[in-house]
Amino acid sequence: MQNKLLAAKAALPDYDRTKLVPRIVHLGFGAFHRAHQGVYADILAADHGSDWGYCEVNLIGGEQQIFDLKQQDNLYTVAEMSADAWTARVVGVVKNALHAQVDGLESVLAAMCEPQVAIVSLTITEKGYCHSPATGQLMLDNPMIAADLQNPKQPKTAPGVVVEALARRKAAGLAAFTVMSCDNMPENGHVMRNVVTAYARAVDEELAAWIEQHVTFPSTMVDRIVPAVTPETLDKIEHITGVRDPAGVACEPFRQWVIEDNFVAGRPEWEKAGAELVADVIPFEEMKLRMLNG
Ligand SMILES: NC(=O)c1ccc[n+]([C@@H]2O[C@H](COP(=O)([O-])OP(=O)(O)OC[C@H]3O[C@@H](n4cnc5c(N)ncnc54)[C@H](O)[C@@H]3O)[C@@H](O)[C@H]2O)c1
C-alpha cells in the first residue's frame, strides 16, 4: 500500500531509502530533533547522496511519537513557517524506531551494538543527564541513577543505557561510537562526558578507562525554534500538505548547528547541509550569549 505521506504536497524523499544504513542511534525523538538533525540528514540524503540513516529511540516518555512514526513507515513531515508561506518536507532518513519500554531495552541495546553504529546522539532535555547543572557532575544520589547502578545491565537512564551499550561493544570486541549531545546546554559534550565517565567508574573502572580512551563527546551548539506540537499545528500542516501526520512538526526557517569535529568512527558531511564543523564550540556559545544579552 502506498504510504499516505508519499502523497503529501511537500518535498518528498526521492532518494533510495533502502540504501540508508542506520549508523546513528538517536536518543530523544522529540520535536526538536525531528526539525533539526532530521532535516540536516534529509538534505544530505536528498542532495548529496548520503546513506547515513537513523535508528530513533525514546527511553522515557514519547511512546506515542514512536508509535506514530512506525505506523507510517518511519516518515514524518517538517513544516517551515515563514511570515508569508509555510513549506513542508517529508523526512525519510529514519530506518527504525524503538521505545525502550514498549519494544524492550534489549532491542535498544541491540540497535546500539550493531557494528556499523558510529554515533549515538541525544536530545533528551537537561534532566535526562541526571547531573547537577551547577557543577556539571553526575548526581550519584539521583534515584534513577542509583537504581541503574544497582542493576547496570538493565538501565533506564540515558547515561546508564549509553554505558551498558559501550560495555557490550567492548565485550564483543567492537569499536566504540561517538556520543554527541544536541541538548541546549553550554558545553553539552563535557556534561555528557562527565556523566558517562562518572557512571562508568561506578560500574567498572576498566570500562571507564576504555571509554575515556575510545569515546569522544563533541559539544554542539544547536538553534532552531520548534514549538511544542499542538492539534492546531497538525491542522495547519494538513492544510498545506493535504495529509494528516501525527508525527509532524513545524519550525522557524532559521537553523544553526555548530559541531566540534571530533568523531571516532566517522560522521555525515553535515557541512554540506549548512552545519559548521569547528575545533571548539565555546567561542560560538559565547558569541550567541553576547548577542542574546545585547
Ligand atoms: N524545541 C526547541 O525549540 C529547541 C530548540 C533548541 C534546542 N532544543 C533542545 O532540544 C531538547 C528537546 O526538546 P524538544 O523540543 O524536542 O522536547 P520534546 O518534549 O518534544 O522531546 C523531549 C525528548 O526527550 C526525551 N526525554 C525526556 N525526558 C527524558 C529523560 N529523563 N531521559 C531520557 N529521555 C528523555 C523524550 O523521550 C523526548 O524524546 C531540549 O533539551 C532543548 O534544549 C529545543
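^ nicotinamide-adenine-dinucleotide complex. The longest helix spans residues 188-203. The domain at 4-293 is CATH 3.40.50.720 (Rossmann fold).
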